[in-house]
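We store amino acids, tokens; thus:
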Amino acid sequence: MCGRFALYSDFPSLARSLKLPLAEGELTPRYNIAPGTWISAVRRHEDGCQLGLDTLWWGYRPHWADDKAPQPINATVEKVATSPYFRGAFAHHRCLVPADGWYEWLAVDGRKQPHYLTRGDGEPLWFAGIWTDRPDGKPGCAILTEPARGIAKAIHPRMPLTLDQQSLEPWLDPELTDRETIRHLVHHLQHERLTHWPVSNRVNKPVEDDPALIEEER
């Protein structure tokens, strides 16, 4: 799954990584981003042309759902295109959630050890996401997850769908709505590019938010 992540790259670094025209934006470094908070995401503006770095609520609830409807933070790749709750957003409201890495917890000797997963080359990651207008009129989103691959599999059975460079533009293309076409054009980042290490249990508390959280615990 993806329930906690970090984003500390500055805007120029993200724009350079995206390699697509991106309207100006600002970012505050965050090392312990938790669900139920505002997060940064790249999506197309209403004109369908310009990309913007917007702020979305990390919790997905469509505008037509009632107050008792769930607010998932993740949507699985297996069901996102067919589930009545998600399929409209998958076809028309896809976004990219930038991250420098994410956290997963590994059971070790009866306790859960947090690990930080990131790219070995230090480049930002791009999580596939979907968004919707919530009942309160504000945008909310969910991050897609897939079965874990490579080194991530040793930590947790699922991981965020992290896209490779060639997939970023088609994922954001509003003209692409067909599930099979999207599946053909969009691919995940090669798992060989990922690395991980154990980090402090301080990350368990969302109020903790500083660069030391991503340092390797020895």
User: Anything to note?
Assistant: Residues 5-214 form a domain with the hypothetical protein yedk fold fold (CATH 3.90.1680.10). The first strand starts at residue 5 and ends at 7.
